[in-house]
Amino acid sequence: MSASKTRRIVRFNPAQPGARGMKIAATGLLFVMALVFIAARHFQPLYPAFGWVKAFAEAAMVGGLADWFAVTALFRHPLGLPIPHTAIIPRNKDRIGEALASFLKENFLIPAVVARRMRNIDVAGAAGRFLKTPAGEGTRIRAGASRLIADIFEGLDDERLGGIVKSAIATRLRKMEVSPLIGHALASAINEDRHVPMLEAAIRWTARMLEANETLIRDMVKKKANWALKLAGLDAKLADAIINGFRKLAGEMSEDPAHPVRLRIEEALAQLANDLQTRPETRARVEAMKDQLLDNQSVGLWLDTLWQKGREAIIRAARNPDAVMAGKLGEVLRSMGGTLESDARIRAAINQFARRATVGMAASYGGSIVKLVSETVRGWDAQTVTDRLEAAVGRDLQYIRINGTLVGGLVGLALYALDRM
Question: Where are the domains of the chain?
């Protein structure tokens, strides 16, 4: 991905409809106060009561102009004049980025804080309700959430995020000792006879390979047989005996669950399950094989492909959630949603996993996220920062100008009353 793309700057127009209307209203109110002041000053000699109006309008202009100066000084130099301590936000852009990053780190990305917040979040329940909602109910929520997910995955730096995901998976696998997990899974499968279908499938596969390679076996026997066997024509008979023997053995193993060879295979599997959990030499060999696989370039390419396919699938599903929720897949997802809502044990396990994963990400990548925020803000030009902040708070700032105008007028009216008294 090119640097120009990763550093692309999207400018936001601060004059959003609401902010633009409030800015016009605040400026218009200030202009009206100026006209009222001029009119009141003109008619005061003829009508002394206009002194009250003049006092209100005069103080309102002062209050409105003061707040206009204060609001403008946040984002730019008033009237383009380089007055000291103005254009505060553009001049302090980097400090704002660092303060925002520190705020995120201290309030959201500390593992203890994340764990405390995650205790009160029912991730599994929310996912269950989301999946269980039929079409037509909660459509706007689903559509909005889907658009947000799609926009996030499309907007993130694919190369950088993919590297983070791949690195996180590889690091987690390296730290995880997989040998006991494999041994425990194998032992559980054997205890519950879940290995039987796999064993029978392996026997059937062996029988098919024997049939498919019968010619190869005959050729091997013929090449290995000595001249005496060939002269007597016994090489063909020997090949027939070997093939028929293997074929008979496969058939008997498939039909008889108590076949001696089959029992020996099951004993070997049980011993392997025990060695994977208890024998240091076996565990060390499995861990070494795991590290060799993770170091293999093909595995890295496979993880890249896995990430790309997963990302594309998420974006496609998010762009068209109704299609995902339709058909058999939709039925499966709705069934999963019902299970997540009704099964407290599964819900607790998923919430615990989500909590641990989130805390782990905060501990491992919190610093990187904070650094990314500060570097991103530092990479923006000053005008972009100004536009974005003004777009976010511009409407409220114009309310400040209006309130300043009206409050200033009321204060001026009160001072005029005191002077008259």
Answer: 16-135+328-421, 178-322
